[in-house]
Fold:
Amino acid sequence: MRRLAILALLALLLSVPLWVGNFYVLHVLIVTGIFTIAAMSLNLLLGYTGQLSLGHAVFFGIGAYVSALVSLGFAVHLAPDWLVTLDPQPVWLAMLCAVAIAGLCGWAIGRVSFKVRGAYFVIVTISFAEVARLVALNWDELTQGPMALNNIPPLAVSLPGLDEFDFIGKVPNYYLVLVAAILAYVVIARLVHSRAGRAMIALKENEPLASSVGIEVTRYLVLAAVVSAAIAGAAGALYAHYIQIVDPNVFMFLYTVTMVIMVVAGGKGTLAGPIVGGLIFGLLPEVLRSFAIRPEVQWVAYGVLMILIVYLLPNGIVPAVASLWNRAGRADAPAAPTTGSSPGRIVP
Amino acid sequence: MSGDGKTALSVDRLSIRFGGLTAVESMTFDVREGEVLSLIGPNGAGKTSAFNAITGYLPAASGEIVYRGVRLNGLKPSRIAVLGVVRTFQKTSVFAGRTVLDNILIGLHLQSRQSVLAIILGLPSVAREERRLVEQAREVLNFVGIESHKDKLASSLAYGELRMLEVAVALAARPTLLLLDEPVAGMNSTETMNFMAMLGRIRARGVTILLVEHDMKMVMRISDRVVCLNQGHIIADGPPADIQRHPDVIRAYLGERHARAQG
Ligand SMILES: Nc1ncnc2c1ncn2[C@@H]1O[C@H](COP(=O)(O)OP(=O)(O)OP(=O)(O)O)[C@@H](O)[C@H]1O
Ligand SMILES: [Mg+2]
Structure:
């Protein structure tokens, strides 16, 4: 049943470019996909370890900048007479660098701020994002500052015996993002269903008890931060090579807030949550735009919907639907094994 | 009844302070391999504080804590668990939002080995280990007698079952020394009887037990030795029969409980 649903969903996603001819719609889907990957990565931290990172866009931004810079090459003075230069590198290598460096930043943030948990962690992540934005804005020599990095090359792969293939245009990028999203999903799903994911969940649920059975607190929190940051960095790299321009606005708080909304509305701590939330809040502005006459109306509608979801479904859409589903299942077949009678805080 | 008599845990002149308050003062006692040692004393005597210091949740102001030759002072709780010293908490403590089976799987953390890389790559060894862990979790649940609840949320268990689950989580970590902080508090007499039977089975597996408990009937029945603490000081240490007759213990603690324990 479950397997069938997943296959059907995959088939649907794979076939999209066949029946969606409109390039603008594909563009919206690609950008939504990229942000959904970022939301999935945030969910690993927020939903599974319970740590709220309000600077998550920083990993996304670092991924975008690193990938752009490595693929464009740069020459920068680290001291008046110390010039560091890098020739343009292949895009796939640049993307790998982006993932690695974003992961490294996640490690650093994790080490520093998991010593100070809760509200302090939130503050550290916000500050880190702001610092990153200021660096991107002011380090002209490296980042071009507000002028932005332009003409970022698209991903190109050359398989032996075949011509080089460039990911230019909507259809190839759609598939690229889809594959990346599936990869991110698989990595996160494997992780949360393993001993590592259980350790993260245990720390969120009851940290003293978790450490009493031998779970190392810092180790698993840092692991979650590294994987989360690396995936967010990958999303940023995809973004840079798709849009082909990166400016300091990628570090904006608004992007982090968007990711948090996607995760919370969809259902934090569930694998499907950020996907559902990502699709809804990624596509919604475009849908509203096509109906509403004025942008103010769009944003008010957006806001109202958000408040309604958070108010009526405090655990998010996915847990609410899952428990409705369970109830329906139980009504049909009373003998079915109860998979935990969760306290029902569902829509009336 | 006690094991081979070798010292398992030795607590030497342990003091614990909270600011100006001294919760435990120069406490010295040993737990021998395989025995059941009970720590008793009135409310606020410092029993839980001693547990917290032994298991790394509180720093010792002074003194030494050594388990099987390894000094525990300054080690993190997770490290101490690796050495085989696992505790339960006075206030009921489980992973409430997870199923009973998940609780045990978390408790089995140290019994699993798979690296993060293997997990992400989805190697077959990971799936094999998961199957083995589920099998082990079932054994643990069987052992404490709550296997039939394995798919329930921990938060939906009845109180007695919840306290069994706490012990099951601790057992999953394969302790060689198990510290239980008032495990039968709030249980009815049937549940207490069940619990005592289970304690018997745990010790039959060679696990050393350090118990804090106010239920004197149980303490006197199952302990090899009893240490009595009052206001941070040890006032008596000996076999249950001696403790029951000890004038200081009667004055400080047993008092009216005395009669009950005799009965
Ligand atoms: N975190 C703390 N901060 C300050 N004082 C504390 C703290 N924990 C315990 N105490 C004090 O230390 C003393 C010993 O407390 P402890 O909890 O160890 O007693 P106990 O023997 O376990 O008592 P009970 O039988 O009620 O559980 C008490 O005076 C208590 O008020
Ligand atoms: Mg206590």
Observations:
- The CA atoms of residues 6 and 12 of chain A lie 10 Å apart.
- Residues 23-251 of chain A form one domain.
- The longest helix of chain A spans residues 23-49.
